[in-house]
DNA sequence: TGTGAATGTGTAAACGTTAACCTACAGGCG
DNA sequence: CGCCTGTAGGTTAACGTTTACACATTCACA
């Protein structure tokens, strides 16, 4: 229950708490014998320093918080893992919170991270908490947005070139199939979906093609939405000749719909933001826009570290990662 | 930077810190006007209580730690998500640490969680840190093992009936194909793999079949290991008629190997512990042993809550979840 | 021989909360 | 009128660390 404190160690070793602290933190002068003596007692009593007290006194937690919309999405987990490794190497711990694409839980997560005094917050936001984020920045906390930006928020950010990649992909589809391809978007509340949609429209306009609203299906980045979009498109009188899906989960859902309708999965070409784990296992005509999650993670971690170690001041940094379109082999 | 403290709020509102604390924690008597006044100041200053100080004083963090071997494995994430939801409902936060199946990082994670004074630790252990876990229990901390147990450790645990399920699966394969099926195990250091292996052996013995060492491949629960096992088995002069894989990731790897070798993925039957996300998308003869991650998560969360709220004392609780073998349709 | 730097150790004041304890006033009741 | 109870709010001592400061001792050097 109640743990061993530095006082217990000090008493047992016959020294003051200051000395124990000095031994443990390797600062100040301590003689060799005393040091050995203290370390022996620490080991014998299995003493674990109280990080709460330490952080309170030092006013540093060496902890970074991260709020993710979906921990079951391998894309976000890949980003998170890279960030964690990188931060660990610099002596910071990462505290994940999953908010399930829910703005309310996201707000709560942000609150908790602030109360825990995490030194920075990395956020892939739902878009619903601009005010809370703004207050956080205003209070001088380091905030790094990843993947998604938030309207009206000027903060460090690491994002994909969504418009560019979507433009390229749409142009590719246009060239191959003309304008009759379906688009499965994410929720309008996310910057990624809005930017990707803008990219597609740009490509269509450049080619002088009108955009047919019937070919746009607004999903919400979930598997289920992808499936529903699939049934919508495949049930049309004149189904589209190809489909552009704005994330990996919806792509998976789309393929499920094809399967349910008894269509061969290579019946039409699909272009997808984000990779599909399952892709190598089935016949398909899947083109993928690789988002390089580790590049995003590395960039985010680097920004956090430089803000925390170097001066916290300075204009917001914007890092844009270039996704790569990898087209289906046939 | 340095945040607003309860003192600032107190000064601004013209009351003592005790009163502010009372308002915030809804205990003790505070008049309506003062309460409104304080809340207004809290809002205006955007005051965030310091959880470090609070926890230090109260000697409660309302935080539970969780150490996972692999955050990219959807099975563990499903367990984690259920636990988080359940704990949140009881007012606890969950702090995940990923240790990447590495005993050293696991040890480090356990240390950090103890220093943070998480009130309980939920552990899916690599098996390499029995001593650290023993010390943690000895120190009176609540520890719940999930999925895997640790040799020589008596603690609360939520596990699958691994031996039973493996026995059933092996018996099923024996009846259908005789003893010539391959087995891809996990690392010997994990209790799950040992128990599953024991189950298979039990079934073989009962049937009076000798166990052929050439049909056992020791993997390490990674995709890569499954792939290597695949090439090993499929490259044999007389390849096995079916394969039993001890986890989902290795199953995925096995299918990759089949693909690489140009075999149709339904060329032989595979029985796998844990589900495969991709399964619905390709032709296969996959039988799955469902492990019910949410049942495991619920049970683990319930044990934690009852230990933390009710008496911490009492004999270790052992909850065994029954996995369900779901055989391939053909 | 005095002086200053380097080394070694203790004392005590923070860090931001909470909660035990105290004071004070009102009103009800015998 | 005295006393108890309920309400309202202030004072202050913790919680377990770190660290500024103080005090010794040793040793080199002028």
UniProtKB/TrEMBL annotation, chains A, B:
HTH lacI-type domain sequence ranges: 4-58
Parts of the chain that traverse the membrane: none
InterPro entries xrefs: HTH_LacI (IPR000843), Lambda_DNA-bd_dom_sf (IPR010982), Peripla_BP/Lac1_sug-bd_dom (IPR001761), Peripla_BP_I (IPR028082)
Pfam families, per the entry: LacI (PF00356), Peripla_BP_1 (PF00532)
SUPFAM superfamilies registered for this protein in UniProt: lambda repressor-like DNA-binding domains, Periplasmic binding protein-like I
Keyword entries, A-Z: DNA-binding, Repressor, Transcription, Transcription regulation
Protein name (Swiss-Prot/TrEMBL): LacI family transcriptional regulator
Organism per entry: Paenibacillus cisolokensis
Lineage: Bacteria, Bacillati, Bacillota, Bacilli, Bacillales
